Each structure stands twice: as C-alpha cells, then as structure tokens.
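Technical appendix A lists one of the benchmark inputs used to test multi-chain prediction within the project. The record comprises four sequence entries:
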Amino acid sequence: MRQIKKPTIRDVAQEAKVTTSTVSRVLNESTLVKPRTRQKVLDAIERLGYIPSKTARIFKSGKSYILGLVIGQSHISNIMFNAGFQAQFKALTEKAHKEGYNILLITAATADSESYFEVIKNQVADGFIIFSPSQNDTLTAMLEEADIPYVYNMKYSDNPQDRYYVSSDDVEGGYIAGKYLLDLNHKHIRFVVGSVKGGYLPFNADRIRGFQKALKQYGVPFQEEMIVKIPGQMDESYNGIHKLFQTDRPTALMISNEITTVAALNYFFDHGIRVPQDLSVIGFGPSEFFRSLRPNLTNVSYDLAWSSAKLVDLLLQRIEGKPVTPEMPKKPELVIRDSTARYSEAAPKPS
Amino acid sequence: MRQIKKPTIRDVAQEAKVTTSTVSRVLNESTLVKPRTRQKVLDAIERLGYIPSKTARIFKSGKSYILGLVIGQSHISNIMFNAGFQAQFKALTEKAHKEGYNILLITAATADSESYFEVIKNQVADGFIIFSPSQNDTLTAMLEEADIPYVYNMKYSDNPQDRYYVSSDDVEGGYIAGKYLLDLNHKHIRFVVGSVKGGYLPFNADRIRGFQKALKQYGVPFQEEMIVKIPGQMDESYNGIHKLFQTDRPTALMISNEITTVAALNYFFDHGIRVPQDLSVIGFGPSEFFRSLRPNLTNVSYDLAWSSAKLVDLLLQRIEGKPVTPEMPKKPELVIRDSTARYSEAAPKPS
DNA sequence: CTGTTAGCGCATTCAT
DNA sequence: ATGAATGCGCTAACAG
C-alpha cells in the first residue's frame, strides 16, 4: 500500500501519461487544461496518494507563508503566563491565519541582538515579529542590512525613522491611572514596575513619565521611592510585595505587570489587606483579564487584539514591499471597577 | 550597500575565486579545507553579507527542524487561556527548542479530520503534534496513509495499536479526587466537566469512570445528575455554575476545567459562598496554577512538563524512524490545600 | 584539498 | 492544449 518513497510530480505524470508540466498546471488550477486530461491527472494523484512537496514549492516561490515570532528563551517562561502576552499571541495567530500565514515560534538563547539575529537569519519565514530584546539598535541594523522584513511588538527606538512597530500610548496610560488616583485623594501612591538590568523597558519608562505628569499637574512632588521595582514572576512578585508592605503602607498601588498584580492580590488576601477599603489597586493590560479577577480590578485597558492585528498588517506590507503606513498609537482607556476607592483619613487602616 | 538580489552561494564562490562546493564545505565545516581557502571564503561571505538559504537547505535535506502544532481554530480562543494548555505549550516549545526544533503553530478551520488533514499535508514540518479533534479515526488513517509522523496530546483511540500519545492516568485522577471527598464525608458531590457535541472528551470520560469507581467503593450510588456539563469559557462557565447553584446545593465540587474553576470561584466570591466552609472544591490541572488561586486550591496535579517532553521525544522517535517505546501513563497526584474540608451536618449552610 | 557534475521537486518559459 | 527544457540554491558523489 505505502510507497517506499513519497510520490513526486514525476510519478504522477508517468501514471497519468502526461508530463510534469501538465500535472503542475492542474495543481495550480492553471488556465485551460482539457477536462479529460485534467481528470486523468486527478485520478493519478488520487491513486498514488500524491501530496505536492511544500518544501519544493517554498524553494521555488520564495514564499513560505510563515511568520516568525521571536522571543528570548529567558523570557518565554515569564511571558507565557502573562495575560498581555497571551492576548497578543492569540490575536497574532488568529490574524496571521486569517491572512493565510502560520506562526513559527522562535526562541533565541538570550535576549541580545546577536542571539536574536543568529536564530532569525537561519529561519524559513517571510518576516519576523520580534518581542523586543533588551537592546535592539544593532539587531535592527543587522536586519536592515540583510533585508529581512521585521516588526517589533513595541516602540523600539527614539529614531522617527524606526517606525516598524505598533504601540499604545503608554504615557497616556500612566497618566490616566495616576490622575484617577489623585482625583480619589490618594497621595501615598506606589507604581510597581518590572526592571531589566536596572533600567526600565521603554513602555514602563513611558508609563512612569505619564504618572509623573499627573503628579505634577496635581502639585504632588515626585519621589524616587514612588517607583518600586519588582520582578514579573509569581513568587518573586509575591515576595517583592511583601517586602514593600513591611516598610511602607501606600494607600494606592499601580501595577504594571499582570502576574505581579495577581501575586499582589494574593498577598493582600493572605494578609487581610482589603481592596479597595484599605488599598486601591490599578492594573495595566487587557481588560478581560482584570474582569476575571476578584475583586474586579480597575485597569488601564489596552486593545491588544487591535494592535496585534495592525502589527501583522504592518509586517505583511513590508513583506509585500508596499510603502508602510504608520499607525497612530491607540490611547488606552481607564476601566473603573471595584478595586479603587476614595481615600479619606477616616478610612479604616490595616493594623 | 544592499544588493538588489540576495547573494547566493555562487556569488560567494565567484567572489572568493573558488567553486560552490568549496563554499558549501566551509559552510558545513567539512573536513579538510585548507585554512587559507577557508579564510578567503569566509572573507567573501563577510563582504557580501551572504546568508545561506534555509529554504534551499530544507529542500535538499528534506529536514526542516520544524514541528507542527495543530489546533482547531474554534478551540484556539478557549485553549489559549487554559492553564493546562499554557503549561503544555510552554513545555512543548522549550523541549522542542532544546532538541533543535521550532514549533509551527497550525490552526485548522474546524476541528474535524478533513480540515486537520487539509492543513497538515500542506505544511512544511518534520512531524506534527496534534491537539485532538473531535473525531480522529479517519485523521489517523489519512496520516498513516500519507506517511506523516504525528503524535496526539491525549489518548485518541481504544485500539492498542494506536499508541502515539502520552497521557496521564485520568481514571486514577477521577478516583483520587472522588475518594478524598468521600473520605471527608461528602456525599452530595458534583463533577463539572465540559462536553463536546453532547459527549465527553476521552480524558473526561476516564475521570468520570474513576469517580464512579470511588463512589462504588464507598457504597454511594451513582446518579446521572452528579455529572454537570458546563462549557469551558469564562462567562459561560460562570452562568453554568449560577444555574447549577440555583437548583442544587452540593457540598463538594470537582471541576475538570481550569477556566471553569476560576469562574466558579468568582461566582462563590460574588455570592458569599465560602470555600471550603460552605463548599469543598477540587480542581484538575497543573499544580502551580491552583497554587496561585485564592483560596489555594486542592487539586489533582498533572505533570504536564513531563508529558509534553515525552510527547516530543515520541514524535522525534517517529521522525527518525526509530521503534517507538511507549511510555507508561503517569499517575496524577492529589495535592491537598485549602479548598477542601470535612463535611458535617453542623457545618454552616449558606442561606 | 578542490573542482566537476548531477539532481532534489516544482513551476515556468518556450515551442509545438 | 500539451510537451521539452531550464533553473531556483544547495549538497554530495565522484574525479582529479
């Protein structure tokens, strides 16, 4: 029954008593193949169980209809359980499939330019969606040099030339969160963010900037200790929150990472800190996620489905060599739920 | 600076004043290329910015080092936010990368055999990891016929010949959960499971079987209403739990799906049903997930990292044509945490 | 140690 | 409407 070797287009041609050209024509639904010959070929294909070699087709056409999604290996564990990543990932794959592409998941050993480029250049894909490495200037240069289409999932440079990304307005995000808390009379606010090698990811830097803008507007002086760096994994976050609350008792918290948010809520649950009675909490990320938490969390809501779809569009434009139409960053919205309350001195304080 | 066309191995050969064979040899670090020529070639490569065509290499070698992960499009939304899937997915990609493979995410329009086969056969991948479609007998036959290496993520057949999967012992899972609740004096138990087209997924059927075994052992008669079918998405689950608790007040719940578990906990939070005081709850899935819930959930713990790695091993064995060594299903363990308590009449009942 | 030759499976000229 | 011939980029067998 089974062939020793998989049948090729030649076997089909022979079986159908035609040439490979004809077979190729019926495969590609070419114009004008006589119905009779066409049927002969189809029969032969059926009889042999012939499947055209995708590999050869890619080789010939130069198009794989594959989009590479590049992530640093060290990030993958953390990132995979992050609600924002999940939302992006889902939107990315759905959009890609809608456009006839599949997603190839690529991980680099580390999150630096060299490691990224090393894996990217050896991959079969028409273009790459890159989850930004720690530094990406050299990576960008290398990709340009090699003429490889790419897009980044976030703002990756301050050079206005570098506009191959779709972002949200993160300054606005930090601003509306801060402003809302200040409106609620909070002054003792802490902004919990992740940190990479002591610095901030660009979007966190922007959010902090927005937060500072709100503070200034309300005449509250910014102090360094308002920014609290806590790692983004569950246990480390829990410990980080613990450490914070041993020395400090803010009345409001902004948390830039979803996993840290869950860890914080768990910590508050475990230690009888009531949200929002004792503490107001604002999260950042996809709204559906915060809606599934208890208490329902007030959050700065990002439309990741939208930005992910735009990102794929952008990449496809680059692949097709079309001029790229940059997208305006979408403003995030504040969704007010049950985790934020007005601060007053009279409010019960945790012991 | 940039070439009109990407340089090929021929361009390099010309530039280095050697033949393509020699270039190929240095690319493949072949034995015995004179250091001097080797350096000449390397220089030429550097000068031209040459990158070997992965596509051509795949075409030649027939090996892509890509593993296809096949999911029904209708499932992808639900599956992506499911803790068990995430854990599998993460473990799968990490293991694949460790073995030098990348994961290509493939979605089929629907979850039936024809749709699955249609996308699979047109993909470039050395083998496929298939998240089981609703019915897979014909799919399996077609894959065998086409000589495509595949494995399923779960038991997909009762034919002992069909052993291309790695599973856990789900009968045991249902059994230990039921037994523990019975030990705690619960009799009014409900087992919440998903359902597909009115039937159960094989692993749920097994878990139910295990539950029945426990009941029998304790002399508690099984009744149909002990099994509650609730869809696996967040909102539908919430509504399903709501509906259940309007007509029924079990003292203990086993929940076969992680999202449904979260939805249920949210419902209990919203309606003042205390866990475990008013209701004991047992979840099924990866332990880390249930540990991140509040209250900390007692759960039947599956080692998805282990089974996923084994699954990749199995697939690689098939790809390499090695005889397949089937793996014994691993027994899940009951991890007792804070969501289960002994039942006594005196216990406070919700109003 | 290096060059010559052939061919992987397919699509695409160019003839007929 | 179909066949014959060519080549995509690379590797490998065979010479030399």
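The CA atoms of residues 9 and 325 of chain A lie 42 Å apart. Residues 8-10, 20-21, 23-25, 27-28, 52-53, 55-57, 59-61 of chain A lie near DNA strand C (CB under 10 Å from a C1'). Comparable benchmark entries are summarised in Table A2.
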